[in-house]
Amino acid sequence: MAVSQTRFSAASSSLLLLLLNIVFIRFRFVGADGSQSFNSSSMADRYIKNQHAVDNPEEIASMVDLSIRNSTERRNLGFFSCGTGNPIDDCWRCDPRWQLRRKHLADCGIGFGRNAVGGRDGRYYVVSDPGDDDPVNPRPGTLRHAVIQDRPLWIVFKRDMVITLKQELIMNSFKTIDARGANVHIAYGACITIQFITNVIIHGLHIHDCKPTGNAMVRSSPSHYGWRTMADGDGISIFGSSHIWIDHNSLSTCADGLIDAVMGSTAITISNNYFTHHNEVMLLGHSDSYVRDKQMQVTIAYNHFGEGLIQRMPRCRHGYFHVVNNDYTHWVMYAIGGSADPTINSQGNRYLAPVNPFAKEVTKRVDTSNGVWKQWNWRSEGDLMLNGAYFTPSGAGAAASYARASSLGAKSSSLVASITSGAGALSCRRGYRC
Q1: Nearest 5°: CA angle at 283, between 215 and 144?
Q2: Do residues 135 and 162 make contact, with C-beta atoms less than 8 angstroms apart?
Q3: Which of 93, 228, 312, 317 is catalytic?
Q4: Could you tell me the CATH number of the domain that includes residue 101?
Q5: Is residue 69 annotated as a catalytic residue, yes or no?
Q6: d(Cα 310, Cα 327) in Å, to the nearest integer?
């Protein structure tokens, strides 16, 4: 910062000196009636006049002002040397004062879930208590007490903590869970349920070792609690909900899916997450017979599908799915699968096939005959196939169909390593770029 300030001061000083010289010359050589007088000019005066005289001194003043404003703006933002090409991260991560402008994150969304505002228009809520002793009457200061409130809230954490939930965390609409600046784990118990609500952002959590729970009373709002049957043990379960953004979380080792979206959910973005050590990673679509999922639109972007994964990255039904600029470095069975005529638009991903010669195919049509799935619109465009990986396309490629499965511009697959280098929960420190 000292170097940039010195350069700015030197440049500005030179321009200001130039402006003062011009004003001085104009004052000396232009009379009150506008006539010029050179009678008392010395050789030095003539040299100065010839060197610095311009037709429009006000133009120089404007240049000085522009230089000052540009240098100040660059110094205040400090953004220009840290871009990665990841449009979400480049929107906010370069700002060393991110913790003072946390809600700016809500303006950085992309894809089908880009309009999820979460708790942007509400107050901050600080979680100070990792406990979850009573799912019906949660204590103030706990995460459960925060997420059930009826008003928009931007939820942050006072310190590092491990939250072991006794029952599902039933969220209410217009909430952001923002764990930046703290190391927050939701683990070893129930996990997160987003059911029949809208506008949720979940950012920066470690979610792992989620277990089936249920057959218990659980509160979902200040005015309502009810009986919950058995939950599957998903990391994040999205059920009949819309405008959801799941960003920069690390997920692994849950009883069922890491992220599932079913029962008419739509307008979802799943971005910048790091998935590891799991079998059935992501299910999008309830069942082959549940036709309401035909409205589903999901963006899966900039994620890293890493070690220990087996299948469903994702497994899709009925809807429209944009799989863009993700890094697939491990699968055992397949990466992307589906049934019931989903439209899958794979663009700019990097697929690294396993050593197993019988598992090189990226795609899998689940329990469907060739004569049926050949009509489904699945395409690979600009994907990088490594170690023998191959994508089996299908369908006539109807423009209207792929338009509904397109949510942002894909970048070159050669940039995937850079774009996904920060996938997962980030280690952010206050006062520093994240």
Answers
A1: 45
A2: no
A3: 312
A4: 2.160.20.10
A5: no
A6: 15
What pTM was estimated for this model as a whole? Answer: 0.82
- Token pair 């035909």 is found at 294
Q: What phi, psi does 215 have (nearest 5°)?
A: 55, 50
- Gap between the Cα atoms of 122 and 103, Å rounded: 10
Instruction: Assign 327 to helix, strand or coil.
Output: strand
Residue 39 lies inside a defined structural domain of this protein: no
Query: Residues 230, 184: contact at Cβ < 8 Å?
Result: no
- Nearest by Cα to 418 from 83, 20, 18, 51: 83
- Whether residue 145 is contained in a domain is answered as yes
CB atoms within 10 A of CB 89: 24
Please say whether the beta carbons of 92 and 98 come within 8 A.
yes
User: What's the pLDDT tens digit per position in 90-134?
Assistant: 999 999 999 999 999 999 999 999 999 999 999 999 999 999 999
CA distance from start to end of the chain: 18
Q: CA–CA separation, 362 vs 345, rounded Å?
A: 13
* 395-411 pLDDT per residue, tens: 986 677 799 999 999 99
